[in-house]
Amino acid sequence: MRPARWTTRMVFLFYSRPVFRAWEVFCNHTARLIAHKERMRSLQFSREWARLNLWRMEIQRGLGKISDSHAHVCAACGYCCKGTRERDAFLDRVMQNPRTEHLGARRRRGEMVGIVLARAEGRLLHLDAPKAQGCCNELTCHGCRLPRELRPMQCLAYFCGAAVKALSQEECEEGIRLLKELLKLQWAAVKLALRSRWARS
After folding, report:
1. Is this model's pTM higher than 0.90 or not?
2. Where are the domains of the chain?
3. How much is the pLDDT for 84?
C-alpha cells in the first residue's frame, strides 16, 4: 500500500494538470460561445461577474501562498512561462472587466486586463527588473509583474511534478481544495454566460 502522502501528491498533480487544463479549455470556449456579448456587460451581469471575480481572487491568493514553497523550483526551470503567447483566457478577461473589448478565445493585441488594473492601482511589481528573454511579456528576472490575484487563472493553477515534490502534505491537501473551488468557479462562470444568452433585454 502506498503512503498517504504520495497519494495526496498524485491527486494534487492530477487536478492541477489534466483535470484543470481540460476543464479550463472547455469552460472558456463554452462561455465565449454562449454568452450574449451585450447583455453580459449590463449592470446586472457586471455585478455578478464582480462577485465571481472576488471568489477567483481569493482562490488565487491561496494558490499563490502554496506557490511560495516551490518558487525556487520555478526559478530554476521557468518552462511554464516560456514563450511569448498570451496567457489570459476569455474568463480571465471577462471576470476582471466585463466590458473588455477582447472577447476572443485568445487576445491578439493590447494588454492583459490584470496589467491595466495593476498599473492603474500602482500595484505593478518588479518595475526596474529586466524582462526575461523568450518568456511571457510580464515575466521579469525577479518574477511576474502581476500580483497573484490579477494573473490569469492558469498561471497559479498549474503545478508540475517537481513543484509538487517541494510541497508538504498540508499544502497538497489545501491545493486540492482550492483547485476544486476553481473548477466550481469556472462552471459558475459558464452558467452566468448562459443566463446572459437567455436573459430578457
Report:
1. yes
2. 4-198
3. 76
